[in-house]
Write a structure and sequence with these properties.
single chain; 910 residues; alpha/beta; six-stranded parallel sheet
Length: 910
């Protein structure tokens, strides 16, 4: 016997291919048994024979959960091991969930086929690979339309269903059909005890219609097969009852569009056969279940339904016997002669045929019983009542206990039990017991018994299931749960948790230390707020369990929450908490996360809390200290700004003083010339006047005096004009620099005035300044700051760029650039070292400290360009090649009603 890994497309069959079939429910449930029978029918005749290993999950009696699946998975892995089956078959949704889990964790390449699965899962299953099968959803809406056509007087639809996934999926399909029937009143009976459902059905009338969807567990946890539930509703209802599955087609049920477990099993088996032989289509198909319109004839009569209203392909069960129907055309001709004889013959033929059909059905029933009995995965022991002697055992019983068939018939069930004097089994009771094998070894088994009447004899059928692996897995799970609880109990962090009903399920000692509330006082209650808040209100856990509605988060926690950076999907925050009597409080940091099951449904939430009161006190002290430091810094900054403003004003006045000194030096020459000429003219006028008065003046003296007077006038006028021009330019520059007034001006004229007033800087040194400025380039700006900028640049070049015996060259060029102008200044001096260039705009930075340099010149230039003229400035330099200054300013300067330099200057940004 070999286990095969299933790969892409080759056939799976080998020598003894083993197929694992997972059945969601338990043996004896008609729906599951029918699917299993369908699979076996489809796989009959496959060569070599398929080794079909069947495992029941029993999820009708044990609610499916992560814990249950882990236990079943552990049992399966102990049986199967790491050797993968060739194929996994899954009957119904729970089995499919486990099959996908097994494939993800252990057998990633094994294909999965399913039957009896809700079609609502089709979208999710389409994202899986190597999966196919048959959905079992019936079109309840179509069934509703047909039944309403047959019962037009219906005014109310009563839907009976449980909370299983299959039933809820059919409810949604029914809702879509009901949307087209607004006149109908709809009532849903779910999550109720079976007795309550029966009581409500007994109150209905002929104008009502009952849709009985799958119902296997009521609100009290009682389990029902499809047949049992259908019998309950049919016996109680005073209205027609429609169903959706063939196993629910019981006496008293009207019918409907029915899905068949046998047909689904056959369809899944046929697809498995194709997959094993390598002929299956790729990708594997996922098909809708075949449905058959089926109705009961007595119920059609009971509710006055015309059979002609049924769908054309409908099956009518229990039709009235009519053996003469085929002979009706001949009765007209032979009625007189052979009427009585034909009637007798027809009745005899009908009786013979009926007996043949009954005998064949009996043989098939016996064969089915024998197949189920011999192939049951559980041991079965049949005892006679009363007395308890063994009548028959199945092969699984012999393998389970190690007895031969002859030895087993000599046993009674009490001989197998380890516990002496145990209470006798009660019919339908299921219990766990320790049983002893022939070799003396002991194992755990789940034992259930049922009493049957066979002919005139009573029999006890005892079902034995080996649960040793399950008990071992439960023990391991309990030990693991104990370890996990110990870990949480001993964490240094406060931890508590709630379930989906907001009941506290865990409260560790750190929570008790933090809140003063003991675990025994709060576990099992919904008072998770105790010890955290002074009065009852939702905790963050409660908001998470209810679905984290934004309004609830804002109402209860404001803006104090944020997504956790450590735990995905969790919320964390900080808050101040007081106890119930508000005698003490603390600052806490909390983090809460929802707990989910395998389907992603929220089953509770867990939260941790840490006392951060000491940290908050330190933080408060730091914030107070920080505010004090900020206040001190602000005070020092204000003082520094005032001092800086005074220094800049001094710098401006010093620059103006230097300008005045240079201008005074320039004015000395024309004014001295005027004084010298005036003095000489005064002497000549006195001499000439004396000669005139004495009468000794001659013509030559008069001509000579007139010529001297004319020359003196020319010299006086020339030097006075020169002095006036110097004074006018100086006045314009001085007014601009001291007032920073805005006006419309020609850039060339302003630059010429600047050169005129700064001429003393270059006198006697051989320096030249070249202007390259378009004469029509005009600005609406502040000429004073512009003049201060150029004066500082020229002064820096004269004092820093050129040696004492070197004649330098300076160029000032301007060019328009749209709404801006580029003012370029260059000298061919010694240049600025790279280390100094980075600090050129910093205040008080100078390379001639103590030798007349204050370090504020270029700092003032930067602030005038950026803050007043609204431009930007860049300086480049290379040693030995000079310095380049590019100033970009707008043609129209920004408004400086709040002049930055009037309140202080700003630090250039680097």
């Amino acid at each position: 016997m070999t286990w095969l890994w299933c790969v892409a497309s080759p056939a799976l069959a080998g020598d003894g291919t083993r197929v694992l079939m997972l059945v969601s429910y338990h043996p004896g449930m008609a729906w599951s048994d029918a699917q299993l029978a369908g699979v076996r029918t489809a796989l009959e005749g496959v060569a070599p024979p398929i080794d079909l290993q069947i495992e029941y999950l029993d999820t009708k009696r044990v609610a499916p959960s992560d814990k249950h699946f882990r236990l079943v998975e552990a049992v399966l892995m102990s049986k199967i091991g790491a050797s993968a089956p060739a194929l996994i078959l899954a009957s119904d949704d729970d089995a499919l969930d486990l099959a996908l889990q097994l494939r993800r964790r252990h057998y990633p390449q094994v294909p999965v086929l399913f039957s009896g699965v809700a079609i609502s899962r089709s979208e999710a299953l389409a994202r899986e690979t190597r999966i196919g099968g048959v959905f079992d959803d019936v079109n309840v809406g179509s069934s509703l339309t047909v039944v309403l056509r047959m019962l037009p007087a219906t005014r109310r639809i009563v839907v009976v269903h449980d909370q299983s996934r299959t039933s809820l999926a059919q409810v949604e399909t029914l809702r879509e059909g009901l949307a087209a029937q607004p006149r109908l009143e709809v009532e849903y009976l779910t999550d109720l005890p079976a007795a309550a459902v029966q009581a409500r059905l007994a109150q209905l009338g002929p104008q009502d219609l009952v849709f009985a969807l799958p119902f296997n567990r009521d609100a009290n946890g009682a389990l029902f097969s499809h047949e049992e539930a259908a019998d309950l509703w049919a016996s109680a209802s005073r209205a027609p009852v429609a169903v959706t599955r063939d196993v629910a087609m019981r006496p008293g049920i009207l019918g409907g569009f029915l899905v068949s477990g046998l047909a689904q099993g056959q369809a899944m088996g046929e697809l498995a056969k194709q997959l094993i032989s390598g002929s299956a289509p790729q990708p594997l198909p996922m098909k809708a279940a075949p449905v058959q319109a089926t109705f009961d004839y007595p119920q059609l009569q009971r509710w006055g339904i015309d059979p002609d209203l049924l769908p054309p392909d409908a099956v009518v069960l229990n039709p009235p016997p009519n053996p003469l129907e085929d002979l009706r055309p001949y009765l007209v001709w032979l009625a007189a002669l052979f009427g009585s004889l034909l009637i007798i013959i027809g009745l005899l033929l009908y009786g013979i045929r009926s007996r043949q059909i009954a005998a064949r059905a009996l043989r098939q029933s016996e064969k089915n019983y024998r197949d189920l009995f011999d192939h049951s995965p559980d041991g079965i022991l049949i005892q006679a009542l009363p007395g308890g002697h063994t009548v028959e055992v199945n092969p699984r019983f012999l393998g389970m206990f190690g007895y031969t068939a002859i030895e087993a018939r000599q046993l009674q069930f009490k001989d197998l039990r380890v516990e002496a004097g145990a209470a006798p089994l009660t019919p339908t009771q299921a219990t766990e017991a320790q049983l002893r094998r022939k070799d003396g070894s002991v194992f755990w088994a789940e034992v259930s018994a049922i009493e049957l009447q066979v002919g005139t004899s009573n029999r006890a059928v005892i079902n034995l299931r080996d649960i040793t692996d399950r008990k071992r897995a439960e023990s391991l799970a309990q030990e693991m749960e104990h370890r996990i609880r110990q870990i949480y109990e001993n964490l240094p962090v406060a931890v508590f948790a709630i379930d989906a009903q907001h009941r506290v399920t865990f409260w560790n000692p750190q929570m008790t230390r933090l809140t003063g509330v003991k675990a025994q006082d709060v576990v099992g209650t919904t008072d998770s707020w105790r010890g955290i808040y002074p009065s009852k209100r939702p905790c963050l856990l409660d908001v998470l369990v209810d679905g984290t509605k934004a309004d609830d988060i804002t109402r209860f926690f404001g803006d104090n929450l944020r997504a956790s950076t450590h735990v995905p999907g969790a919320l964390e925050g900080e808050g101040y908490f007081t106890n119930a009597d508000q005698t003490q409080g603390m600052w806490g940091r909390f983090c809460a996360s929802p707990l989910r099951d395998a389907d992603g449904t929220i089953t509770g939430a867990i939260e941790t809390m840490i006392d951060i009161t000491p940290l908050k006190l330190i933080q408060t002290d730091l914030e107070t200290l920080n505010r004090e430091l900020e206040a001190r810094v602000e005070t020092r900054n204000a003082e520094l700004q005032r001092a800086m403003g005074q220094l800049l004003q001094s710098e401006k006045l010093a620059a103006l003083g230097s300008l005045v000194a240079g201008m005074a030096h320039e004015l000395n020459t024309p004014i001295g010339n005027v004084l010298a000429v005036a003095s000489t003219l005064t002497e000549d006028a006195a001499s000439f006047s004396q000669k005139l008065l004495s009468g000794s003046a001659r013509r030559g003296d008069v001509e000579k005096g007139a010529l001297r007077l004319q020359e003196a006038s020319v010299l006086i006028e020339r030097n006075a004009t020169r002095a006036a021009k110097l004074i006018s330019d100086f006045k314009e520059v001085a007014v601009d620099q001291t007032s920073s007034r805005r006006r419309h001006f020609s850039l060339l004229e302003v630059m010429q005035e600047i050169l005129h007033t700064t001429q003393p800087l270059f006198k006697g040194k051989g320096h030249t300044v070249t202007l390259d400025i378009p004469p029509d380039l005009e600005l609406d700006s502040y000429p004073g700051p512009l003049e201060q900028i150029m004066t500082n640049l020229l002064t820096n070049s004269v004092h820093h760029a050129f040696a004492a015996d070197v004649a330098g060259e300076m160029v000032i060029r301007a060019e328009p650039q749209g709404e801006q102008i580029l003012l370029h200044y260059r000298d061919n001096g010694c240049g600025i070292p790279a280390a100094n260039l980075a600090h050129i705009f910093e205040p008080f930075y100078t390379t001639k400290l103590g030798r007349g340099g204050s370090g504020l010149g270029m700092y003032l230039v930067y602030n005038l360009v950026t803050n007043i003229l609204g431009g930007r400035i860049q300086v480049q330099s290379s040693l030995g090649e000079g310095t380049w200054v590019d100033i970009t300013i707008p043609r129209t300067a920004p408004d400086v009603a709040t002049h930055p330099l009037a309140k202080g200057v700003s630090q250039p940004g680097f």
